Amino acid sequence: MQYRPLGRTGLDVSAVCLGSMTWGNQNSEAEAHEQMDYALDQGVNFIDTAEMYAVPVSADHYGKTEEYIGTWLAARKNRDKVVLATKVTGPGARFPFLRDGNPRLDAKNINAAVESSLRRLQTDYIDLYQLHWPDRTTNFFGKLGFVPNADEDMTQPSETLDVLDGLVKSGKVRHVGLSNETPWGVMTFLKLAEARGLPRMASIQNPYSLLNRIFEIGLAEPAIREDCGLLAYAPQAAGFLSGKYLGGAVPEGSRMAVFKQSSRYDTPRGHGATAAYVKIAREHGIDPCQMAIAFILSRPFTTAAIIGATTMPQLRNAIGSMELTLPPTVLEEIEAVHAENPNPCP
Fold it and tell me: How confident is the model at residue 250 (pLDDT cuts 50, 70, 90)?
């Protein structure tokens, strides 16, 4: 297993991070425990979750993922072997059952969220506490352009950092990070932390895959220059890069079959790019999913790729990508496809 520095925290995390958002919905508690047992045995020391998981979010499933991690930690008594990351929900998601349907990144909301997460996780501290969405109008999730909302009631980044500073000083949180952020947001938080001696953002958890490389355009530079690396979620583009949805197929038990909802990857350009990437992998005798993850891990701005699986074979295959180094010819062919069909699913 490869280990990489988590920003400037002094922590080293496995380059493959175990994602968990299907636990509590597609996966049972026993299956979640089995995945964590296997991952830890393979050297994975990094687990990522969020207060809002399982996904799709509902009142029935909200917080289940953290609960499953908590029962696993309590049963295995191995908290010191795990770098545990979770997230506080920002205003990008509004659910009526979550803090009066108006989650914010202010003192009231963050303090309430961290206490609930600690209780569900059955732990005294969180290694990496991330802001799940910006508390402002911005163009995350692939939105084009930017039109500020003149009437928005934005929680100032300085206020958010002050709250996080209190949590770090109390020992409830060790380090902090961002998610679904923009270059402006990353640099604003970093500059404020430096100027005022507040907690420094250690990472940026954003989408990144062969179908969505927009992180490279504005965020790759601060990730490298500021030691605030990418935690890449959806590295297999919700399973599309396996090729299982090509030709209009919807395999039984797959996410699209279970939830019957549209996907950002289910577009003509998305299918075209996927077919081209799968063709490269198969022509070189490489598993398409492993090629997708290995590409992400080869980028200098990547700290970890967050893998998710609903079955043990999927998990074993994803973790196995750590053993794969893509040859120059494969990388050249990947770049040729990207040049012809760039970022089809931002």
Answer: confident
Rounded CA separation 305/317 (Å): 14
> In the structure encoding, which two tokens stand for residue 49, read together?
């979750």
- If one counts the domains in the chain, the total is 1
Domain housing 218: 3-240+290-326
Distances 235 to 9, 19, 107, 275 between C-alpha atoms, Å: 24, 11, 33, 16
Check which CATH number belongs to the domain holding 220 and give it: 3.20.20.100
Residues with a catalytic annotation lie at 53
Report which secondary-structure segment, H or E, holds 303.
strand 302-307
Name which of 313, 237, 227, 229 is nearest 271 in CA terms: 237
88 phi and psi angles, rounded to 5 deg: -100, 135
Run of H or E residues at 201: strand 201-207
Give residue 310's identity as a one-letter amino acid code: T
Closest to 62 (Cα-Cα) out of 125, 105, 120: 120
Residue 268 inside a domain? The answer is no
Is the Cα torsion angle 212, 98, 67, 202 positive or negative in sign?
A: positive
Is 276 contained in some domain?
no
Q: 64-76 and 29-41 helices cross at what angle (nearest 10)?
A: 60
Residue 270 domain flag: no
pLDDT digits (tens, 9 = 90+) for 110-154: 999 999 999 999 999 999 999 999 999 888 777 888 888 877 888
Residues 6+ apart with CB under 8 A from 194: 200
DSSP string over 261-272: ---TT-SHHHHH
For 175-211, how does the pLDDT look when each residue is reduced to its tens digit (9 = 90+)?
999 999 999 999 999 999 999 999 999 999 999 999 9
Whole-angstrom Cα distance, residue 182 to residue 92? Answer: 14
**Omega prior to 56 cis, within 30 of 0:** yes
| Helical (H) or strand (E) element with 130 | strand 126-131
Q: What are the tokens at 92?
A: 């990008």
| 279 inside domain | no
| CA 120 from centroid of its chain's CA atoms | 20
How far apart CA 250 and CA 244 sit, in angstroms, is: 7
At residue 165, the 3 state secondary structure works out as helix
